[in-house]
Specification:
single chain, about 325 residues, 2 domains, 13 strands, about 25% helix
Amino acid sequence: MNHHIYHVLSDWFPQRDAGNWLLATIINTEGSSYRKAGAMMLFSEFGSQLGVVSGGCLESDLLHQSRRCWETGNSRIVTYDMQEEGDVAWRLGIGCGGEVTLLLQPVSAQNNWLGLTDVLDALSRQQTVYFSQPVTPGIPSGSAAASDPGDKALFTATLTPPPTLGILGGGVDALPLCDMASRLGWRVIVNDSRARYARPADFTTATVTDEQPAGDISGTDWYHQMNAVIVMHHQVRMDGEALAAMVSVPPQSLQYIALLGPSHRAERVLEEAGIDESQLPLPLHAPAGIAIGGELPESIALSMLAQAHAVVHGKSARSLKGKPCQAE
């Protein structure tokens, strides 16, 4: 499964009535940690675990802690200090050297599932959610939150929907790109108007497959949902029509545009489309991707997706060596 909160909640929703559940949320970290504040996962009394809040080192103890919440019906706050020799995290040999504090809350129909069904609904509609939780330990789970948004007894997590990748061109080299992006938890749209391209039977991991002409994509339901788009029809005219469509009607959510192929081909595509690169809503990444080596479709897909991932998340795609953990 994927560990994005949207996928976690999607997996939980059909089994929400199957016994007791608990939501674990990281509300604070100090120093190095596998995940940061706002990360969430769900535990069931039968041992199911959806999502991650560590690399697998804290989850077994969290399941044990969950049972105390189920017994009382109240929330709890637990802290794991990877620097303190007497702490359970030290005994587990984690070695990160940081501190992680989590809020544990029972989830049930009696407390309206903590509002998680509403969160899932909003994320399904590509909406960002500001999810506030009381952080006072020992109170009944699901107690009314304070009305003051600045109240320090509340922890608010910003939950964003998964990024959406538009693959314009449904050839054989789009298959590994679609599969990799789906494994990352991204929504993937594959569009190609040509026969035997972008077939649902081939792109089984795509969220949407479509057959719109390249020049007409701005009229589709998915056009303004794209956060990243890679143009890869392997056909100069179609590539140009797709880029021209983005000049005429810029996609509202777009953060990344890339064109497969060498620089001289990009010049030809733009000329064919009758547009200048400066007219595009964003800088054009052409050639698409970062220099990681390899020439097969899988390597090219990895290169392009890594670049798109970095841009969408506002990162540089440089090595982390010599930098703080999980930081630029």
